[in-house]
User: What shape does this take?
Amino acid sequence: MISLAGRDIMHAWGKFVFTGMGLGLLIGVTLSMAGIYRGMVDDGKALLDNSGADLWVVQKDTLGPYAEPSSIYDDVWRTIRGLPGVVRTANVTYLTMQVRQGERDVRTMVTGVGAGAPGTPGWPPYLVAGRHITRSHYEAVADIASNFKLGDRLQIRRNQYTVVGLTRRMVSSGGDPMVFIPLKDAQEAQFLKDNDAIRQQRRRTAENPAFNRPQVPGLLDSVIASQSVNPFVNAVLVQIEPGYDAEQVAASIRRWKHLTVYTRSQMEEILIGKLIATSSRQIAMFLVILSVVSAAIVAFIIYTLTLGKIREIAVLKLIGTRNRTIAGLIMQQAVALGVIGFVVGKISATLLMAPIFPKYVLLEPLDSVKGFIAVVVICILASLFAIHAALKVDPAEAIGG
Amino acid sequence: MGSDGIRIEGLKKRYGRGDTAVDALKGVDMVVAPGEVVGLVGPSGSGKSTLLKCLGAVIEPTSGRMVLGADTIYDDGWKVRDLRALRRDKIGFVFQAPYLIPFLDVTDNIALLPMLAGVPNGEARRWAVELLESLEVEHRARAMPSQLSGGEQQRVAIARGLVNRPPVILADEPTAPLDSERALAVIRMLNDMARKFETAIIVVTHDEKIMPTFKRIYNIRDGLTYEEAGEGRDVEQEYVQAGESAEA
Assistant: This one.
């Protein structure tokens, strides 16, 4: 038996291909939406992977340092380092801000990293150009997504930084490229007040009789000096010794240091389950809407194509064609339309949409397989209206009434 | 190949129930022998379409008997189970317009029927080509319907009606849109095919041009058929004359 659907498609291939291309662009948008969600999850995981930490020690009862503000003293790392199972610790600060370079500014996550070497928690694990930070001030390593180049001068708060190295896939959970600067500079950038505010604070302190006692010379200077430094960081990143259980080490820190500690899996849960949860729901809603719209379009197209063949269907029924053959003709055409649409959608999502989209779009093969199955199922369901209409056609229509 | 033609006895069809019931057919009798071409005429509302649908196994009669070839199709409420297969295997249709499947070429338009009946594709196509040769359109075997002239399309439609060698062919106004020469060409073709394949052909028509060619005509009025003798003119001669008139 010949394939009626195949012959019909070959006969009117232009109509099918152009309709499939239109549908394909819609499928491409749907795949891209899924890719954006995957990209957000991957950004979150990349942030955790690249931090090189097994544990995140943050301010007690906060979801820091990524989902909530967290502030702990910058000498806490010493005491944590002494606990059994801890092999390495490092202070880190994160501050999402606009970094100015020349005439433009770029939204970045400025990350303050302590002195160390590649492999130190918080440091970028690899560079694609240049070198790591070697000086204690005014050097920066930037992610290439920021479009900064080696030698660029960046303005962060009041200070200028020179880009000495470039890295890749170092982004915040929101997809902002990271800029690494020395920890002391980052602490200053995070907590530094403007000159007016500093003068105001000093005046207030000087006017406070508790700090400005005539009998205690030097007290006021000491108080003002203590206000001028920032002894806080957002988190301490901890690497644990091989063979130790991360949860046990975390429990030990919680118990003895009265801080909140997150393991890798807990931090993933915070990033994916809480930080990007709203975005995920929005994307899921878009996916549902796009799927419904796609289904409606396929149903409408197939229904219209079927109505255009009513006379042929009546003739086919009159000459003894089985209902399942007619249903198969319509269903195969719907699936063919879906396959054309999926191929066009996959190509457009991969080659057109993902490269120019301002966020990282991760198109996973498994998502494509699921998408393909969903397209086929939607097309089959959408063809049911047309099949219903076709099966209702009276073969008598072919013999004039 | 058809052997016993078609025989109808007391065929009745009632639409609706109670006070609103309408008797479209009130006891139709009809016999068409193998190889015979008869006309079926009647005014609008006479029951012609209903009879055609009953003959075509599209609707079921209320009562009566219909025998197609060697098979009884209806017998006072009893009917064969699979009307779809019956239409496919026992009845050929030729319509007013050819109604060819636009996405199949000429050969496959004809071969589709045997393919639907389970005949292998190659065999079905061979049958189709044989018929195309009989109807002298074998040179258009690979053409699409849209590439054929009106006359060629009608010949292909006739070939499709014949391909399963049905005992009966129902031709519904097959010459309505054609001029005299082409109309007579179609009737000549139907007569040739009826003789060649021993098929009973019922031509439903209003066409005065072809009426004189029938030896027998069934006139249907108010749900009853009346057999009338036709002029039975020689189709070949009529065709030649029509051709000469057209040239003149």
Chain A touches chain B through 26 residues (CB under 8 Å). The longest strand of chain A covers residues 86-101. The mean pLDDT of chain A is 90. Residues 339 and 376 of chain A are 7 Å apart (CA to CA).
